[in-house]
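Supplementary Text 2. Reproducibility record for the structural model of the 163-residue chain.

All settings were left at their defaults, and a single model was retained for analysis rather than an ensemble. We include the record here because the model underlies the residue-level annotations in Supplementary Table 4.
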Amino acid sequence: MGGTHPDEDVRELAAALLEVSAMLVRQMPNRYGMTLTTMSTLGRLEREGPMRITALAAAEGVTQPSMTQLVQKLQRAGLLIRLPDPQDGRVCLVEVTEAGRTMLAQRRRDGQDWLGERIAALPVGERDELDAAVRAALPIVRQVTRPLKHPAAQPDTIASPRK
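Retained model, structure tokens:
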């Protein structure tokens, strides 16, 4: 960041991070023919556990009808199942199946192998620089990608007086 206005420096850093992530996502082979939304949805369910379709749609930034279609497709493929919601029997939760977990694990291995081949082809000095940079950046990137907790982003609540 070269001494420009701080806001401009931050925008340049953000642009560079977005460029890195987009390059990796676009270049990684996709032998499963699945969209980024599909992989993200399965990964979220694997990490966070069963969810309602409405919550999953909101988390993934898609409409509820679109998520319903995606869930149906993934259910037909055996990668998701629907479960009754223990809190409300009128709705269901979706959960990744063991086949879905296996596919996600294989996809991660494929990505690591693909990228690993390219990293291994770098000169040792560049590989060491990349290693140091990524190890330093990863915890910070994890921190900046957590949801922000702005007072303005919180739903308005009005406490009613207790009697």
